[in-house]
Design a protein that fits this description.
Strand order of the largest sheet: 3-2-1-4-5-6-10
Radius of gyration: 20 Å
Structural class: alpha/beta
Shape: globular
Strand content: 15-25%
Distance between the termini: 48 Å
Low-confidence stretches: none
CATH topology of one domain: Rossmann fold
Helix content: 25-40%
CATH architecture of one domain: 3-Layer(aba) Sandwich
Length: about 350
Amino acid sequence: MRLLITGGAGFIGSAVVRLAVSRGHEVVNLDALTYAACLDSLASVADAPNYRFEHADIRDRAALTRIFAAHRPEAVLHLAAESHVDRSIDGPGDFISTNVTGTYELLEAARTHWQGAGCPGTFRFHHVSTDEVFGSLGPEGMFTETTPYDPRSPYSASKAASDHLVRAWHHTYGLPVLLTNCSNNYGPYHFPEKLIPVVILNALRGKSLPIYGDGSNVRDWLYVEDHADALLLVLERGAVGRSYNIGGENECTNLDLVRTLCAILDELQPRAQGTYADQITFVPDRPGHDARYAIDPSRIRDELGWRTAVTLEDGLRRTVAWYLANEAWWRPLQARKGVGERLGVGV
């Protein structure tokens, strides 16, 4: 297929681009190159004959119109978004502008392109979202595709709004859409502001390993390359108008996760004295911190035959090993705005 992938220089987007290019799809990567983007994540495919890069913002309708006309994509995989909860607490406006207004502009550009091509039934608009739109779980239960929306942060509220826009464009205009909501991603090329890369890099530099609150918050962890595989599967075989939850089936408290990372680091690159767990520090909790996320992936497993291939322990080991071997990738990112700072402490 000819794919237009938005946000392809980001963490999840770059994994999707690399996989799609390796599978022979014609890929156009549209990215605004904001602070969390990194074209070095795409070095392995940058010179591939079936890869093109377009530096553009999804809020720029004129640029979108030009790109759709030039490349005439058969499908859109929409990953471009502001995604860090802590940054959304400090600056919600960027999240509303990119995640809501940007999705609207992209939907309209895609609809114009689709209608101009005679509304082909093979066209797909795949919107990639998050489990955070469902809010917070108690000790039991899991999110399903029918769980009511209950976003608790500016980030999750902006993603919930974009989800509703995508469904509205399907029901009102007939645009062939697909939606996916994923659990927390991790793996290589993860921008160093999220928990796992922050812990790994702080540990290596002898800095404190910050745990919000008491570390009891639970997340369901999904290896990014597993997620990329699931996204392409849904795009190719998912039912139009349907949503699919993509989960790692790897629940873990934040404290247990950090302790596991420390144990892996102790094995792969031990400290001169003591253990990396000695660096764990508890800090004030994030405002409105959701207690637990967990996804029930039954629909994608039963309908499309997908399930994760990488266990949490194996994925964490791969991730630590990758950061140890790729300082040339992550070292320059330390100078970017906000990296290494505590964000989202609220008022």
